[in-house]
UniProtKB/TrEMBL annotation:
A GO cellular component annotation in the UniProt record: nucleus
InterPro entries, per database record: Sec_Metabolite_Reg, XnlR_reg_dom
Biased composition (Polar residues): 40-50, 57-66
Record protein name field: Xylanolytic transcriptional activator regulatory domain-containing protein
Listed GO MF terms: DNA binding; zinc ion binding
Key words, A-Z: Nucleus
Source organism (scientific name): Sphaceloma murrayae
Domain Xylanolytic transcriptional activator regulatory: 239-312
Subcellular location: Nucleus
Region annotation (Disordered) ranges: 30-80
A Pfam family per the record: Fungal_trans
Signal peptide location: none
Chief localisation class: nucleus
Length: 571
């Protein structure tokens, strides 16, 4: 049948077709690869450290591919993820089951989720555990707002609870799930089962909320925390995919924009909450992609670091207790933006939350910690995450490596003194009176020295950049000892934190592989550094073999990989 009007798309279709041959030349990169790297990007992914093994008889092909590969970081930086079950459908081979068990009916709605709430007493215990363990290292929730809504929710009768906002329930259940992960249980299986039930309820609440086409600050907070839950629950594959969804929603909510730069009619508290939420998204994305050697996604932002403020210094503008943690800037694609509801919320009775608030000095210390982690994340994302994700050398000259190491050390010197204490005895004494600051110290120390280890170990033979073995060992030792200090002071927590455990595992593997390199004749193999680093690997193997309850399959796999590397040590 002949068209009645002229087709206006022919010209565009021709342009698209003609552009296909130039797709590679016009590809966009966060970190632009070198010309040589682009010429070799057709090399199979088997050249990477996390490649799947080829079939028997292809060993020569693997070797030749590695020889033809790009200038790469040394192989000892490619410590594998702790594969539990490597199946084709599982990206990282971790946690092959669906992460959220399905206990729910199609028509149950909010009432069904409310029906499985714990008792108020049990909820209080789990929330207290969350704010004791999780909040210090990821302090992005506005405490006054959260506890106002938390107490108000529990004060309502069941009929009112059944009409609660689904994103509020999602946040509550996520906190219950994380609190449960850090509680003492007779067995790991009991603890995991209880925590997974709360996580399933949180996921169901997000589904009722329609989290794929709506977003609020509460739903974003729940998704950020669920990512950490999934990692701790041995579901790193699911956590990585889940974090991709929340990043899209964060961009759609314009969390990456500083509230002062866009037209937002919101309170000062909400502006600060938006900044802290973006910091949490950015921090999670940057340091997860460093571990997984994958591209960072939270790369576009104009949020101002200096704009962060503590709660006590915020101007009281009428929303200090009644802001529902529900951003008035929802997902730009949502129908709620196109046709917003017209009814105004009813005024709520005042709630006494003074027992849940922290001292002003604690809140100021949180801001210092956030700023320190933010500065480190910016340096890491640009100089480590992006090039590592493209299998590119981190530096192009010895001078650049020296300069970058100096930048890392200068940044560390700029951190507040209480975050740079390395002495185990001093930290243990501080933990008796201020465990919150000690947890922040250990997490910052672990992240900083882990990244410094990667930088010191990088090499680029074509331009004369060599691995600084001594510098790598020193950084790996400090990073690994931050984990040992966590074990000593917060034993149960050390068995739960996946990110901390895996960094420690990578550091131990890196030490073992560095010590497996035949030293030069002028190197004193009896040096105290070599001895204590070798002892570090032994200590890590002892941790993995038993002692602390955790996921036995994951620990066993890590233990075998580390023992194999340890057997090759030559000093």
């Amino acid at each position: 049948m002949k068209r009645q009007t002229e087709c206006h798309y022919t010209h565009i279709a021709n342009l698209i077709a003609s552009a296909k041959s130039n797709d590679g030349a016009k590809a966009r990169y966060v970190t632009k690869p070198s010309i040589k790297a682009r010429k070799t990007n057709s090399v199979s992914s088997a050249t990477t450290a996390h490649s799947r093994p080829l079939s028997d008889g292809n060993e020569q092909n693997v070797s030749s591919l590695r020889q033809k590969g790009r200038p790469n970081n040394p192989p000892f930086l490619g410590s594998p993820l702790p594969y539990s079950k490597s199946t084709p459908s599982n990206v990282f081979g971790i946690g092959s089951q669906h992460p959220f068990a399905n206990y729910w009916t199609c028509s149950g709605g909010v009432a069904e989720v409310v029906g499985v709430l714990p008792s108020k007493e049990q909820a209080d215990i789990l929330v207290a555990k969350f704010f004791e363990v999780m909040d210090p290292v990821y302090p992005f929730l506005h405490r006054r707002t959260f506890f106002t809504n938390y107490e108000r929710f529990w004060a309502q009768p069941l009929s009112i609870k059944n009409d609660a906002d689904a994103d509020l329930l999602a946040l509550h259940y996520t906190i219950y799930a994380l609190g449960t992960q850090f509680m003492h249980f007779p067995t790991y299986e009991e603890r995991a089962s209880s925590a997974e039930f709360y996580a399933s309820a949180a996921n169901q609440a997000l589904r009722i909320y329609s989290y794929l086409n709506r977003a609020s600050m509460r739903s974003m907070a729940a998704m950020i925390l669920l990512t950490y839950f999934l990692m701790n629950d041995n579901h790193a594959s699911d956590a990585y995919a889940w974090s991709g969804i929340l990043l899209r929603q964060a961009y759609a909510m314009r969390l990456h924009r500083d509230p002062e730069f866009i037209d937002l009619n919101v309170s000062e508290i909400e502006k600060q909450t938006r900044r802290r939420l973006w910091q949490a998204v950015f921090f999670q994305d940057t340091f997860l992609t460093v571990l997984l050697k994958l591209p960072p996604t939270a790369t576009h932002s104009d949020v101002q670091l200096d704009s962060l403020a503590d709660e006590a210094s915020l101007k009281a503008d009428g929303f200090d207790t009644d802001i529902p943690f529900q951003s008035r800037v929802e997902n730009l694609m949502s129908i709620h933006v196109i046709a917003p509801p017209v009814e105004a919320p009813l005024p709520q009775p005042p709630i006494d939350i003074s027992p849940f608030l922290v001292d002003h000095t604690v809140d100021k210390a949180d801001v210092e910690y956030i700023r320190s982690m933010w500065k480190l994340g910016n340096l890491v994302q640009e100089n480590l995450s992006s090039p590592m994700s493209l299998n590119l050398p981190l530096v192009s000259s010895p001078r650049q490596k020296t300069s970058l190491v100096s930048s890392f050390r200068a940044l560390y010197r700029s951190f507040p003194t209480h975050l740079t204490i390395l002495d185990a005895g001093a930290l243990q004494q501080e933990a008796l009176t201020n465990p919150r600051v000690v947890r922040q110290n250990l997490f910052l120390t672990s992240n900083f020295y882990h990244c410094l280890m990667i930088l010191q170990a990088c090499e680029n033979e074509e331009v004369g950049v060599e691995c600084n073995i001594r510098g790598s060992l020193e950084a790996a030792h400090e990073a690994l000892w931050s984990f040992f200090k966590l074990v000593r002071m917060f034993e149960l927590e050390a068995s739960v934190w996946w990110v901390f455990q895996h960094r420690a595992f990578e550091e131990a593997v890196t030490i073992a592989r560095l010590l497996s390199i035949q030293p030069a004749q002028d190197v004193n193999v009896n040096d105290a550094l070599y001895t204590k680093c070798k002892n570090d690997v032994v200590t890590m193997m002892d941790f993995l073999r038993g002692g602390i309850r955790g996921n036995l399959e994951m620990q066993s796999t890590r233990s075998l990989a580390l023992e194999e590397a340890f057997e090759k040590i030559v000093v």
